[in-house]
From TrEMBL, chains A, B:
<dbReference type="Pfam" id="PF00583">
    <property type="entry name" value="Acetyltransf_1"/>
</dbReference>
<keyword id="KW-0012">Acyltransferase</keyword>
<dbReference type="InterPro" id="IPR039143">
    <property type="entry name" value="GNPNAT1-like"/>
</dbReference>
<dbReference type="GO" id="GO:0006048">
    <property type="term" value="P:UDP-N-acetylglucosamine biosynthetic process"/>
</dbReference>
<feature type="domain" description="N-acetyltransferase">
    <location>
        <begin position="8"/>
        <end position="151"/>
    </location>
</feature>
<comment type="pathway">
    <text>Nucleotide-sugar biosynthesis; UDP-N-acetyl-alpha-D-glucosamine biosynthesis; N-acetyl-alpha-D-glucosamine 1-phosphate from alpha-D-glucosamine 6-phosphate (route I): step 1/2.</text>
</comment>
<dbReference type="InterPro" id="IPR000182">
    <property type="entry name" value="GNAT_dom"/>
</dbReference>
<comment type="similarity">
    <text>Belongs to the acetyltransferase family. GNA1 subfamily.</text>
</comment>
<protein>
    <recommendedName>
        <fullName>Glucosamine 6-phosphate N-acetyltransferase</fullName>
        <ecNumber>2.3.1.4</ecNumber>
    </recommendedName>
</protein>
<keyword id="KW-0256">Endoplasmic reticulum</keyword>
<dbReference type="GO" id="GO:0004059">
    <property type="term" value="F:aralkylamine N-acetyltransferase activity"/>
</dbReference>
<dbReference type="InterPro" id="IPR016181">
    <property type="entry name" value="Acyl_CoA_acyltransferase"/>
</dbReference>
<keyword id="KW-0808">Transferase</keyword>
<keyword id="KW-0472">Membrane</keyword>
<comment type="subunit">
    <text>Homodimer.</text>
</comment>
<dbReference type="GO" id="GO:0005789">
    <property type="term" value="C:endoplasmic reticulum membrane"/>
</dbReference>
<dbReference type="GO" id="GO:0004343">
    <property type="term" value="F:glucosamine 6-phosphate N-acetyltransferase activity"/>
</dbReference>
Length: 151, 151
């Protein structure tokens, strides 16, 4: 899927990304709500403490220093498949003004790379029918339905 | 959804369930492969160390002491929804000889209860179209597609 354009950098989430607008990018995906810098730091530390379980990556636009894309991989340990690992791709978002530049596919490619490298036998994600074709372009196939119960 | 029949007990997974056949039940769902008791114990301890993240429950048939049903809940921490929690229901299986006795719905109900109690804003799961109606009976709604990439 080629290289990232030179005016962007893809890297792990860091604490300073709170100020660089990572939560604003997630607002394009769904409800984020009010999260103080302290609460963000606490959640970041929770994830950092779980090495090999949570991977959050972002794309930064070098010219502005702003976060313009984000995505997560959660690694689940199972009994099936000889105590296999499954990667869950979650919370993929690209800022509206930066869409159409293939940043989303770069985020998925990076998360796929991590998941494969740590030994996941598969990676899964849930999406609306509207986004199916994007994930097909990323090499994913439709495997069934997502079912939800909300509280 | 009523009470469990008196000849069954629903409880958290324990180490002795290796010998009580929990892996045989999972073989109804998919590939399990060879897992030694030592490897099982290691995976069990990994999950136990992650309190509040992994919940595995089983149904035991009292007359035989065998595991006849199993299911898991993995709790994910997110930034979205004010650092919200999402429960992932995974690896639901009921022994073939015990199907049609509503054990599956009891397992889902117990995992829903745990997920709600610890504060998940939603619980999600993936299934084949063939199982959609079962999860509708459990109170779930179709929310989109599962996409997969296998390695
Ligand atoms: C591949 C991807 O990014 N999927 C996301 C999922 O990760 C996220 O958790 C959910 C939030 O929706 P909600 O606000 O309705 O829970 O939306 C999408 O399904
Ligand atoms: C609700 C439920 O139990 N869903 C399971 C999922 O948890 C499991 O991981 C997968 C295994 O399939 P695989 O062997 O093809 O990975 O099957 C089903 O989708």
């Amino acid at each position: 899927s080629g290289k990232l354009a030179p005016d962007y950098v893809l890297r792990p989430l860091q604490l300073s990304d709170y100020r660089a607008g990572v939560l604003e990018v997630l607002k394009d995906l769904t409800t984020v709500g009010d999260i103080s810098e302290e609460r963000f730091t606490e959640q970041f530390e929770y994830m950092r403490a779980r090495q090999g379980e949570y991977f959050v990556i972002i794309i930064e636009k070098i010219a502005t220093g702003n976060v313009v894309g984000v995505g997560s991989l959660l690694v689940e340990r199972k009994f099936i498949h000889e105590c296999g690992l499954v990667g869950h791709i979650e919370d993929i978002a690209v800022a509206k003004s930066e869409q159409g530049k293939k940043l989303g596919i770069k985020i998925i490619g990076a998360l796929d790379f991590i998941g494969k490298k740590i030994g996941c036998y598969k990676i899964i994600l849930d999406c609306s029918p509207h986004n199916e074709q994007f994930y097909v372009k990323c090499g994913y196939s439709n495997a069934g339905f997502e079912m939800t119960k909300r509280f």
